[in-house]
């Protein structure tokens, strides 16, 4: 048995080989860049207008309009003092422009321009390089690409991006009692739901599940299922059969497949029978079968490791502190991840904390971390992991 901190350290200390690939810009969301990106040119790359209005030469209230420049125009104007050109947002400002005045603050009669207020030197001009200068570090290796990141990389003219490959995940659920949703249910059977929850949790964070398989509580079947699944997976996630029951065959089946245990059992609630192992460059999480336990363990342990395997600086471990909205006592002897709901800046510990109960998790939006045997008074701070 290890503590939560020890389990995290064992996961974090795994030596992993990261693989890279080149992806099209439009296909990069959530991937982490595998090399620094520096600005190939100044941004903006030329002085341009921040407004639809007039580019002015000299500071006064009256000008003569001598022409027009729109976004994308290559025209060059030689402006003299007292002259102005009609200009539009994003258009290159002529050399010797002192300021741009927005059109709402102007009056025009023929080629005479009168301003309703005095311009300020440099106003409404976006200067060359004011956002980025050529060579400047834009993103460090490991940056996880967001939509804004994609926009910025595109604006730097980069079409193909070097990123870390994401791990391929396979899923195996075990249990004689499990049947697929949609089929008629006999006495003693329950619908298999963990694979749906886990696959969609992977998907939510941009990870793909390759293969999903449901196997009965049969040692040989589980053993050969694991063997086959490990052929294609970087990470194999199992659910169920990892506890101490007579029909819990997963641990032994992993051992007989040459998977080496990194830890088994974590001093926590829920999710005590959590197992983590590796076989060369392939990793295995065997999660307890109880629906809330398996999904909690995914958020707390599997997700950080998936980020690690994708070369990301993100680790999925961010905890946010919220005041609790009511008194609460954790009588249990293990540190707990409790199903909770954050609203109006406070966190509420929900009813229905049983390991099998997923209703509260589905209605909540956080896991609240509360130490064993701890009494909290309303208003005390609680560390929360957001599971939105
Ligand atoms: P186990 O970890 O195999 O002992 O399972 C613990 C509990 O979780 C049992 O009540 C199982 O029926 C339930 N369970 C196991 N696997 C699943 C699954 N894939 N979907 C829904 N419930 C499950
Ligand atoms: Mg079982």
UniProtKB/TrEMBL annotation:
Keyword Plastid among record annotations: no
PROSITE patterns: MOCF_BIOSYNTHESIS_2
CDD domains: MoeA
Catalysed reactions listed for this entry: adenylyl-molybdopterin + molybdate = Mo-molybdopterin + AMP + H(+)
Pathway annotation: Cofactor biosynthesis; molybdopterin biosynthesis
Every MoaB/Mog domain range: 170-308
GO molecular function: metal ion binding; molybdopterin molybdotransferase activity
GO biological process: Mo-molybdopterin cofactor biosynthetic process
UniProt-listed Enzyme Commission number(s): 2.10.1.1
GO CC field: cytosol
Enzyme class: transferase
Superkingdom: Bacteria
Sorted UniProt keywords: Magnesium, Metal-binding, Molybdenum, Molybdenum cofactor biosynthesis, Transferase
Primary role: Catalyzes the insertion of molybdate into adenylated molybdopterin with the concomitant release of AMP.
Similarity annotation: Belongs to the MoeA family.
Name the record gives this protein: Molybdopterin molybdenumtransferase
Species of the source: Gelidibacter algens
């Amino acid at each position: 048995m290890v503590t939560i901190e020890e389990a995290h350290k064992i996961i974090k200390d795994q030596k992993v080989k990261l693989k890279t690939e080149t992806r099209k810009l439009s296909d990069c969301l959530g991937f982490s860049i595998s090399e620094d990106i520096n600005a190939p040119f100044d941004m903006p790359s030329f002085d341009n207008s921040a407004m639809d209005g007039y580019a002015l030469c000299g500071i006064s209230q009256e000008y003569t309009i001598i022409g027009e420049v729109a976004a994308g125009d290559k025209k060059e104007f030689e402006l003299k003092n007292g002259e102005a050109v009609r200009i539009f947002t994003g258009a290159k400002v002529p050399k010797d422009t002192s300021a741009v005045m927005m059109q709402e603050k102007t009056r025009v009669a023929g080629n005479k321009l009168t301003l309703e207020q005095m311009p300020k030197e440099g106003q409404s001009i976006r200067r060359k390089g004011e956002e980025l200068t050529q060579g400047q570090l834009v993103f460090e290796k490991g940056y996880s690409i967001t939509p804004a990141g994609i926009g910025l990389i595109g604006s730097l003219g980069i079409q193909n991006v070097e990123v870390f490959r994401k791990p391929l995940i396979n899923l195996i659920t075990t249990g004689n009692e499990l049947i697929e949703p949609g089929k008629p249910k006999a006495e003693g059977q329950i619908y298999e739901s963990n694979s749906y929850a886990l696959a969609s949790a992977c998907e939510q964070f941009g990870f793909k599940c390759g293969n999903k398989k449901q196997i009965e509580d049969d040692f040989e079947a589980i053993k050969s299922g694991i063997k086959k699944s490990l052929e294609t997976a970087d990470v194999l996630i199992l659910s169920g059969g990892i506890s101490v029951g007579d029909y819990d065959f997963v641990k032994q089946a992993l051992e007989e497949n040459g998977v080496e245990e990194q830890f088994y059992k974590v001093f926590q609630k829920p999710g005590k029978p959590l197992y983590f192992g590796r076989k060369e460059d392939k990793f295995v999480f065997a999660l307890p079968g109880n629906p809330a336990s398996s999904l909690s363990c995914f958020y707390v342990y599997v997700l950080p490791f998936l980020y690690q395997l994708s070369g990301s600086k993100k680790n999925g471990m961010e905890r946010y502190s919220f005041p609790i909205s009511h008194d609460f006592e954790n009588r249990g002897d293990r540190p707990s991840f409790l199903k909770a709901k954050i609203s109006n800046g406070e966190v509420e510990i929900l009813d229905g904390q049983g390991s099998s109960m997923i209703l509260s998790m589905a209605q909540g939006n956080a896991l609240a971390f509360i130490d064993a045997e701890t009494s909290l008074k309303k208003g005390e701070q609680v560390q929360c992991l957001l599971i939105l």
